[in-house]
Amino acid sequence: MKKLIQEAHRRSLWQVLGIYLFGSWVVLQVVDVLAENMTLPDWVFPFALVLLLIGLPIVMATAFVQEGLGSQAEAASDAAEAEPVGSAIETSDQGEGGEHASAPSAIETGGGKGRNRILTWRNALLGGAAAFTLLGVVTAGWIITRTAGIGPAATLVAQGVLDERAPILLADFESEDAELSRVATEAFRIDLSQSDMLRLAEPVFVADVLVRMQREPDAPLDRELAREVAQREGIQAVIAGEINSAGGSHLLSAQVISTGDGQVLASHRENASDSTAILAAIDELSEKLRERIGESLRSISRDSPLERVTTANLEALRRYSQAVRALEVEAEEERGIALLEEAVAEDPEFAMAWRKLGVSLNNRQEQRARQVEALMQAHEFRDRLTERERYMTIATYHQMVTGDIDQSITAYENLLEVYPDYYAALNNLGGRYMFIREPERAEVFFRRAIRADSLTSSFPYANLINALVAQGEFEDAHNTVDELVGRFPGNLLAQQQAALLSAVERDYDAARQHYEQIKAASATSPFWRTEADNGLTSVAALLGQLGQAERRILDLVRVDEERGQPERALGSALRPAWWQMLVREDPVRAVEVLETTLERFPLSQFDPLDRPYLELVSFYAQAERVNRAKELLAEYESSVPPELRGQGSTSALHRAQGEILLAEGLYKEAITELQHGDEVGCRLCALPGLAAAFEAAGLQDSAVATYRRYLETPWMQRLYFDHARLAPTFERLGQLYDEQEDWEKAAEYYAKFVELWSEADPDLQPRVEAAQRRIEAIFAERG
Fold first, then answer.
1. How far apart are CA 382 and CA 392, in angstroms?
2. DSSP state of 82
3. What is the pLDDT, as a whole number, of residue 362?
4. HSE of 92, CA atoms in CB hemisphere, 13 A
5. How many alpha carbons lie under 13 Å from residue 296 in its C-beta half-sphere?
6. Burial 271-300 (b: 16+ CB within 10 A, else e)
7. Considering Cα of 9, then 15, then 20, then 25, what sign does the dihedral take?
8. Which pLDDT does position 109 carry in this prediction?
9. Helix (H/G/I), strand (E/B), else coil: 158
10. How many Cα atoms within 13 Å fall on the side-chain side of residue 148?
């Protein structure tokens, strides 16, 4: 302290000003760092700034006074030096308090004047230290009471009113302007979704609950209806907002309401001078409520402003909010996708809308080229996304666009390091492990996703069923289907899982019933209606009822064309050609059917990414049109960049190349390529071709083992593969065992073939009758 005071005396008024300003800057930097790293309240920095501003005039006044006294002391010292020695001795006898005391002493005592005794450097320094000590004590008290749940600073989580990470329901904002209400609600949802403390119930979950309440799924969710939904589902709190507009300005308010008694637990309001300030006001509302609920200030402060992570274009945000409602509440997929297209047309840098568009198209397995474009745009503008959305965009970009599984897995793992309970990342990472055929590991992530959010999404349940089936855990799979139906009654995904599981267990009557129920319940959803028809078509073809299957295909193609989905129409139209090839075993007629289809849907009308090149390569190779297969393969490799081929493309390419080699009689090379095509992804796709390659190479035992592996591999999607291959495989295995004189196995597989095609079309019945006669002969010969 003494040295500081002495140093202050040596400085001029302007030097003191410069030192104070520099020191203030250093103090503010320190406070800022401490506030960020220790998650201090947002008023700490302004408090420190105010203290420094108050201190500035005090320091300058002290410097002015002490500089003047310093000049007086210097003059007195000069006068003393000019006096005779005796006078000097006499003056010094007056003691330390006399007029001729040394300059420092005279300054500290202030020469006996009141203002000099107050405006001293000692008082200034002690006052500054006391002020910042007070700031520290107040801040520490705030943190302690906030954490302990005491007093006005206490958070709702600390008070025990809400559980950390418990789901919260967001009601629709109330406003006279319905469109403004919708935009504000969606913007508030996006902003709250950046929280690592809150888990908002998704619109699709709310729609399911409303259906169970015998309400319309798109009914306006006012605060009273929101409380009723929350009470039914055991949700502790509802967040409700309101917008009051007058003269172009808007007053926005939001409240956290207890579900049980309707008590307002927290509230805040913000003003928006006009429509351009609404997003900033929502940002402030969200920040205050998140802080009051109990989220750390560090977490809140690292979030990007809402305007940046969404769009500054309110019309684009309006279209986006309408799209989310159409996709997740009203089940109007086509309308939702169209609205997303309009949103990105309004704001081409609207990354969240681009990502939603790409993922929606991918979920529907539609318009591969448009999927890639949307996800590339989202990836390009990923800095305009919330932190979680940004991580998800990077992961899905590598998953769906580049097909780089390692980078996709790494991106999801990085996301989970920051957000370990983010159910979407857990679910998607489980999906990546399913793709590389690690169902045990995938199961762990699917179960974690369900624990993290059992209310919001049915997808982790469906994926868990896939993982359990892949491990042969059928009892657990059935229990999970029951849990899925119980948690999401009326959810058509649950019905679809029940249908697929029935098909895996070869209970095709049950599978057909489930698909009929889906179709009956999907009057307003073209997507689910076509999914049901696809399932019914596959069941019919698998049972040898090709006439019925081909009639259904005509309807599917017509509907897809009417919906403006020529890519899906082409995919459906190719199936009869495969039935001619694999089921009726007539490759000449199969090629005729295929080329008629391609005349109706010429490849030139599609973007290269939407052309089914590799499927056509495999088809022509199996039809022994090797030159055409090679032409299409070369066209694929030249027109589709490797970095845009997506997941599974490498395996599919190996399989197509293997089919060409098999058709050329290069059996060893074909086996190698087809084995590479069987390493990841589809668990069945390479096996029939591989078995045929073993047969052609004279490796009958390997062929039999591979055919049996195809039949015995549990896979939830096998209905969509079995429709053209299951019956021919039963038949061929019976013949191979017959040739090996294994009569028991031969009779077993002939019997399975006969049972499967017991009601097949008349033109297929001669093969059924031949198998039946062979069974009877075996019994007659062998007993």
1. 10
2. H
3. 85
4. 11
5. 9
6. ebeeeebbbebbbbbbbbbbbbbbbebebb
7. negative
8. 41
9. coil
10. 8
What pLDDT score was predicted for residue 709?
A: 97
- Measured CA to CA, the distance from residue 742 to residue 733 in angstroms comes to 11
**Separation CA 255–CA 288 (nearest Å):** 10
Question: Is residue 530 a contact partner of residue 556, using CB atoms and an 8 Å limit?
Answer: yes
On whether the CB atoms of residues 32 and 45 are closer than 8 A, the answer is yes
Q: What is the value of pTM for the model shown?
A: 0.75
Helix (H, G, I), strand (E, B) or coil at 39: coil
The whole-angstrom separation of Cα 346 and Cα 134 is 52
Contact 231, 261 (CB under 8 A): no
Say if residues 544 and 761 touch (Cβ distance below 8 Å).
Answer: yes
- To 10 degrees, the CA torsion angle through 603, 367, 532, 677? 70
Q: In terms of Cα–Cα distance, which of 706, 698, 626, 610 is closest to 658? A: 626
Query: Going edge to edge, which strands form the sheet with 249-258?
Result: 199-200, 167-170, 237-246, 249-258, 264-272
Tokens standing for residue 40: 């201090």
Whole-angstrom distance, CA of residue 378 vs CA of residue 382: 6
* Three-class SS state of 237: strand
Give which of 738, 763, 762, 764 is closest to 750, Cα–Cα.
738
Structure tokens at 443: 């199961």
Residue 574 carries which DSSP code? T
pLDDT of 99: 42
pLDDT for position 39:
58
Cα 122 to Cα 1, 79, 112, 125, 709, distances in angstroms? 7, 28, 16, 5, 90
pLDDT at residue 246, rounded to an integer: 82
- CA 548 to chain CA centroid, nearest Å: 40
Secondary structure of the chain: what % helix, strand, coil (to 5)? 70, 5, 25
- Helices 508-521, 492-504: axis angle to 10 degrees equals 160
**Other beta carbons within 10 Å of 735:** 15
Q: Which of 350, 348, 326 is nearest to 337 (CA)?
A: 326
Type of residue at 107? I
Instruction: Tally Cβ neighbours within 10 Å of residue 595.
Output: 12
Rounded to an integer, what distance in angstroms lies between the CA atom of residue 577 and that of residue 155?
65
Q: What is the DSSP string of 540-559?
A: HHHTT-HHHHHHHHHHHHHH
Q: Which residue has the tokens 């902003």?
A: 191
Contact 744, 711 (CB under 8 A): no
Helices 526-542/333-346 angle, 10° precision? 130
Closest CA to 494 of 502, 777, 617: 502
182 in Cβ contact with 252 (< 8 Å) = no
Instruction: Report the C-alpha gap between 674 and 661 in whole angstroms.
Output: 10
Phi, psi of 252 (to 5 degrees): -105, 135
Residue carrying structure tokens 């009929």: 516
Q: What H or E segment, with its residue span, contains residue 245?
A: strand 237-246
DSSP character string of 149-211: T-STT--TTTTTSS-TT-EEEEPPPB-SSHHHHHHHHHHHHHHHTT-SS-EEPPHHHHHHHHH
Question: Within 10 A of 679 (CB to CB), how many other CB atoms are there?
Answer: 12
- Looking at residue 514, its pLDDT comes to 95
105 token code pair: 């002493």
Interior/surface letters 550-581, b for 16+ CB within 10 angstroms, e for the rest:
bebbeebbebbbebebbbbbbbbbbbbbbbbb
Structure tokens at 426: 């857990």
Locate tokens 């009326």: which residue? 490
The segments of the chain whose pLDDT lies below 50 read: 72-112
Nearest to 507 by CA among 557, 532, 542: 542
Q: What is the pLDDT of residue 76?
A: 47
Distance CA 635, CA 605 (A): 15
DSSP 304: P
Tokens read off for 628? 């055409």
- Would you say 151 and 255 are in contact if contact means Cβ atoms under 8 Å apart? no
Bridge partners, 238 (sequence order) = 169, 257
